[in-house]
């Protein structure tokens, strides 16, 4: 989800690699983006020259004008084909959105994520475990366990392929990597190198073949009578849009928390004081949930968003002049700047999980978009990350592990590994 950079297809490979490198670097060094964002907030006319909205009022206004600022901007980055995130409002969009909401309604993410987190914590706290990978050994499986039931009775077959062994972790992992690379294309956008694009396309082909063979099973499991192409589109979309982004957000949340030692230590002592009630105390859960949201504010997975402009229009920048948006172009939304806009968020630079958002509760969730196109799974995602974080808080103190090279490894804009070491008492 990135602002257009002209026409990268026409770029020399070296320039494209440089552009992709810069984009990935900025994603990892979000403080630099926050700095740019602050400048654009202060002088909104500068953003207006480039079609960038930075003030909270401007970002919110653009995201609510869905006819003037269109989601079709995502379409070229959907390696697996069309899905509702890139559609304009209309009957297909409405039907797909209703379907995803109906599927999300059958989930019991809190119970499922709690159960998986407890199991994994028990495994990772056994004597002899000196370090583990937050992504591959923990988050990936908690999110999988909580979200995969969207496929109902067809869930196992989607994950391991028809006739595959449901206990085969290797097969499950293959599926999770497949959807990760498809989703990565949405994040990297058209600046991705050709190698990255080809990998996303190969994974999308494999996802398509996997779902094609299961069309009627999924239709039965969902209890719908939609034609096969609708089942195919929605099943593929649901597979890649749900899991990778949630895992990645979880990794960002933990990375941010570990940098804030005092916040982390306080949460750990609260968890410790609750003993086994740590999983059942609603006040503690709410506290952790508030922390998850505030940590996400500091590390949103989509710090920038974009929209197509189908016809000439303008948006209010919050400054003296409107930004002119010529039809056929794009606008960029500096959501990271909006999340820290002091005009809308009290003490915006401070880490305040329990801030009174006054009339701006909607802005608190901007990491999930805003307005009619906001993420339909935002509550589910935050519940899953809350369970995952509670599990980590019950473990011995964690620090980045330096036992095996760099503790954090990136694959483009995505974190692919974060090794953590439980400290000796
Ligand atoms: C922490 C995890 C997640 C984050 C940060 C996140 C973020 C977002 C954002 C920012 C958007 C809006 C994009 C835009 O307006 O251009 C969005 C849309 C969407 N998300 Fe999520 N999401 C997460 C998890 C999930 C999950 C678990 C699902 C599972 C179904 C999901 C399904 C969708 C769908 C279907 C849309 C498109 C909605 C529409 O256009 O009407 N997301 N998400």
How would you characterize the overall build of this protein?
This protein has 425 residues and is α+β, with helices and mostly antiparallel strands. The chain has helices at residues 13-28, 30-42, 44-49, 56-64, 91-105, 109-124, 134-147, 155-160, 169-188, 194-212, 215-222, 228-259, 261-274, 282-298, 335-339, 361-364, 378-393, and strands spanning 52-53, 132-133, 305-308, 313-316, 322-325, 330-333, 398-400, 408-411, 414-422. The protein has a single domain (8-422), classed as Cytochrome P450 (Cytochrome p450). It contains 17 helices and 9 strands. The longest helix has 32 residues, at 228-259. The protein is globular and about 60 Å long. The model is unreliable at 1-5 (pLDDT under 50).
Provide the descriptors you would attach to this structure in a database record.
single chain; 425 residues; alpha+beta; four-stranded antiparallel sheet; three-stranded mixed sheet; 17 helices; 54% helix; disordered N terminus; binds protoporphyrin IX containing FE
Provide a quick synopsis of the model.
The chain has helices at about 15-30, 30-40, 45-50, 55-65, 90-105, 110-125, 135-145, 155-160, 170-190, 195-210, 215-220, 230-260, 260-275, 280-300, 335-340, 360-365, 380-395; strands at about 50-55, 130-135, 305-310, 315, 320-325, 330-335, 400, 410, 415-420.
């Amino acid at each position: 989800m990135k602002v257009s950079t002209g026409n990268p297809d026409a770029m020399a490979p070296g320039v494209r690699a440089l552009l992709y490198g810069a984009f990935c670097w900025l994603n990892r060094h979000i403080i630099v983006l926050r700095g740019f964002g602050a400048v654009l907030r202060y002088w909104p006319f500068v953003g207006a020259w480039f079609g960038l909205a930075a003030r909270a009022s401007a970002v919110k206004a653009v995201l609510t004008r869905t006819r003037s600022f269109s989601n079709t901007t995502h379409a070229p980055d959907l390696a697996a084909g069309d899905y509702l995130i890139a559609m304009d409002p209309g009957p297909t969009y409405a039907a797909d959105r209703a379907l995803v909401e109906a599927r999300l309604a059958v989930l019991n993410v809190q119970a499922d994520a709690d159960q998986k987190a407890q199991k994994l914590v028990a495994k990772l706290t056994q004597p002899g475990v000196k370090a583990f990978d937050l992504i591959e050994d923990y988050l990936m499986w908690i999110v999988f366990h909580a979200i995969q039931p969207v496929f109902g009775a067809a869930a196992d077959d989607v994950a391991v392929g028809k006739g595959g062994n449901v206990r085969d972790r290797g097969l499950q992992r293959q599926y999770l990597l497949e959807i990760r690379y498809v989703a990565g294309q949405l994040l990297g956008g058209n600046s991705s190198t050709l190698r990255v694009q080809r990998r996303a396309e190969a994974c999308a082909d494999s996802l398509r073949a996997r779902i094609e063979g299961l069309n009627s099973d999924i239709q039965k499991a969902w209890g719908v009578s939609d034609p096969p192409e609708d089942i195919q589109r929605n099943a593929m979309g649901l597979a890649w849009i749900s899991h990778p982004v949630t895992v990645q957000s979880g990794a960002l949340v933990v990375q941010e928390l570990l940098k804030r030692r005092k916040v982390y230590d306080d949460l750990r002592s609260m968890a410790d004081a609750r003993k086994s009630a740590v999983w059942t105390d609603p006040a503690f859960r709410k506290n952790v949930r508030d922390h998850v949201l505030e940590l996400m504010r500091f590390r949103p997975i989509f710090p920038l968003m974009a929209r197509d402009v189908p016809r000439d229009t303008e948006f209010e920048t919050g400054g003296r002049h409107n930004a002119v948006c010529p039809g056929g172009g794009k606008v960029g939304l500096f959501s990271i700047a909006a999340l820290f806009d002091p005009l809308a968020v009290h003490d915006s630079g401070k880490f305040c999980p329990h801030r009174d958002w006054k009339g701006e509760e909607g802005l608190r969730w901007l990491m999930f978009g805003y307005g009619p196109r906001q993420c339909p799974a935002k509550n589910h995602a935050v519940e899953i990350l809350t369970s995952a974080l509670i599990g980590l808080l019950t473990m011995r103190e964690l620090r980045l592990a330096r036992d095996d090279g760099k503790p954090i490894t990136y694959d483009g804009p995505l974190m692919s590994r974060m090794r953590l070491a439980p400290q000796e008492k």
